[in-house]
Write a structure and sequence with these properties.
mainly alpha
Length: 144
């Protein structure tokens, strides 16, 4: 029996499934960061990588043949921080540079911070205070 073009026409019919669709983002792409911040951070890390690789500090992030990454000394942390702030300071805040450097060299932020000289610590705290007014809220008068 021949199908009629009007009756028994299956054009446009589709199967409706009532089962829930779920998916999981692969771990390498999963991030809680805002997309704009993620783009900003990615550009900053690329610029930082180019800056470090084009400087005397490129050896500080090289992995040895044993697969071991050299640890930075306090002096090296201060030198690298000064160098990057000097070259990227107008493009990014010191707190952004601090965060990027601790990620780049795989140093815990608290160790990176404690290794900085008081001058750089003061600059970081003052920058954060301008943004969050934390010193007044906690009634802190003297930093060092």
């Amino acid at each position: 029996m021949q199908d009629d073009k009007i009756f028994n026409n299956t054009y446009g019919d589709f199967d409706v499934s009532t089962s829930e669709t779920s998916f999981k983002i692969e771990a390498g792409y999963e991030d809680n960061m805002d997309p704009d911040d993620q783009i900003h951070y990615g550009i900053m890390m690329k610029r930082l990588d180019e800056l470090i690789k084009g400087s005397e500090f490129k050896r500080l992030n090289e992995v040895t043949s044993d697969g071991i990454n050299q640890k930075l000394s306090k002096i090296q942390i201060n030198q690298v921080f000064y160098f990057v702030v000097k070259h990227m300071g107008n493009e990014y805040t010191r707190t952004e540079i601090f965060s990027a450097l601790s990620d780049y060299f795989d140093v815990f932020p608290n160790k990176f911070y404690s290794s900085l000289s008081n001058k750089y610590k003061d600059e970081l705290i003052c920058e954060l205070d301008k943004k969050y007014n934390i010193l007044e809220k906690r009634n802190i008068r003297k930093l060092f």
